[in-house]
Predict the 3D structure of the following.
Amino acid sequence: MKLNYPKEWFEQRIEKEGKVEIGAGVPPAPRPVESAAEPKIKLLDTRIAFGQFVALWRRNKGWNAERLAAAAGIDPEEVLQIEYDPHCEPEPDAVFKLAGVFGVPSRPLLELAGLVVNRTPHLREEAIRFAARSESIAALSDVERQAFEAFVTTLSEVKG
Amino acid sequence: MTESKVYLRDGKSGNLIEASLFDEVTPDHLVLWDRDWVPAMQAFCAGKPPGQKPEDSHWDWRRKSKEVTGILGYHSFALVCPKELQGLMMTNDVTSARLPAQFGKPLIYVEFVATAPWNRPKVQDAPRYRGVGQVFVLAAIETSRNAGFKGRVGLHSLPDAESFYEQKCGFTRLGPDSSHQNLTYFEMTETQADAFRQNH
C-alpha cells in the first residue's frame, strides 16, 4: 500500500485535526490462567454442547452466523467452526466475546470449549443432556427451547 | 514492505515535517517502541490512579505484532519521524460492515491505533507532532480501496478519541458496543471516505 498524496493535502487535514486523541481498539481481555499440572481438557462432548449452544442461541434470536460474528467482533468462519467442528479449538478471546454477547459468564463457556479445566459441578452432565436434546433443525421446537432455556439458567448460575 | 512519504506538523515550529509510513511493523520499529514509547508512557502513568492513565497504557504492541505476523488478512503500520516512532496501527480485512447502507460488506477494521505519548495533548501540553491520526485514517482508507472495499473502514474508538473520528474524520457513530467493552463503534462509508480524501 503506497500513499501518494501531496504536501498540501496533509497541511489542510492537519489543520482540521487540531489537538486531539486518536486511540482506537479494544483493550485485550484477560486470558484464562492455565496450569501446567492441569492440562486442557479436550472432550468432544462438551465442545459439541458448546457448538449447539452457540447455534441455538443464534437461531433463537433469528440471527445468521454473520450477524452473530459482527456482534461479537469475530470472524463469521469462527462462528461456523464453533458450531460445526468440535475438533476445532476456539480462541479464548472469541469465547470471551461470545459470552459477552450471550450475557452469560465466560468461565462455563471456556469449560465447555475445553479451554480451561472443568471445575463447575455437573456442568458436563448438563451440557451433554442439553446437546442430546437439541437437534439441528430449522426452528426451535418446544423441547429444544425448554432445553435451551434450562441450560441458559444453568450457565447463568455459575460464577464467572 | 512499502514506505510512503507523508507529513506531520511540528508542534514547536509549526512547520510541516516529512515522515515515513511503513505498511509493516518491523522488529526495528518495536525496538523504537521499547526504547522511547514505553518509558514515556511509564513516566506519565507513574503514581496515577487507573482512571487517569491513558486507556491504552497497558497495550503490548510487541505481543500484538507477534500475534498477527504472517497471518493473512492482518496488516500493521508504523509511522516514523524523523527517527522516532510516532504511531502504530493494526488492521484486518476479515470484518463485515454494520451500517445498514453497507451491512455485510467487507471493510478494513482498525484493531488498534495509537500515537506516541509525546504527541498526546493529555500527556504533553504541547504535542511534539500533530497529524498522526489523519495519516492512519488515510492509510486505512487506502488499504480498503486497494482491497476493493471502496474505502469502507470500521473501528471501536477509545472514549477520548470519539470526537476525532466523528467530527474530524466524518465517521458515522453506531453507538456503544456491549461486545467490545462498551466502546463506541464507528464506521466510514465509501462516500465518507471520498470526502476525507477530498482535494487529492
In short: Chain A touches chain B at residues 1-14, 16-28, 66, 69-73, 75-76, 97, 100-101 (CB under 8 Å). DSSP finds eight helices and no strands in chain A. Residues 44-61 of chain A form the longest helix (18 residues).
